[in-house]
Please model this.
Amino acid sequence: MRVAIVNFSRQNLVSPQEIMAAVQRLPQEHYAKIKIIRYDPERSLALEMAYINNNPESLRARGTYLHDWESSDSVVVIYPFKTRDVFFHTLYHEIGHHVFFRVLDQSLRDEWFALRRVEKGFVSKRARKDAREDFAETYSCLCFRCRLLNHAPQKADFMLRKVFRRVPAARRYV
Model:
């Protein structure tokens, strides 16, 4: 794995080694094209995105996923966080965006869109926004907060079988 962990010395809640261990828990294809995981305590990228897109909601984001189409490299940016739980949820959420856009093929994305029309449960308020946020939130919950998956069992099964390619051991995610 050649992911650069950048700027995390500017906080003291999570070490670069813990970040690397958290990423390495995932299937390798889920992070293979992520080149940098960067801490941005000034939220400079969020400010730029809010200005460029005329979207003040960008200022409330906890992280951002970026992809360079020319190089096929991806970057995860994490903004200030107050707890380890918020950090790990945000990290896995942003990696979930990467998986949705760069790892899944279109047929699996289409299957997710169809499932979202059937499964009315959501793991968080943010997941209700759109299919991409629903995927990223569900992905993060599968990696970090499994209890919330009880609200969306079909989506959890999809994640396990299709995204992580594992057979669920039980229907209850605790």
